[in-house]
Amino acid sequence: MTNRQQGPGEPVPPSRGKIAERLLPGGEEPDPRFTLANERTFLAWIRTSLALLAGGIAIEAFTADLFLEPVRKGLAVVLLLLGMLLSAGSAVRWLRVERSMRNKAPLPLPLIVPLLAGAGALAAAVVLVFILWR
Q: What residue ranges do the domains of the chain occupy?
């Protein structure tokens, strides 16, 4: 895409679009490699989110003879909620990192990492208690 001419010899930068201008106000365009790395990280979190959603659905659909109903439903709900939270959290994380890069600010702490670790530990504890109790 080429730059349009604003006046004699003054290029006008191409517009990023209204949504991008609202979500990413101010700052400078970061190196595209960093923006693309941020996007790849976002997509990795989305893949993890989809795996958690699929796991929650699979537990509810295929483990009726393995787990008691409250355990099965509880574990499925935990995985489904975790997948939903991770999906939303990854979008927030992408936006916070992108804004930090544009404003040359320190990168924010990843708040979804402790969330994912805690929920994974909770799901594992539910399964462990069930296995030991059974």
A: 50-134
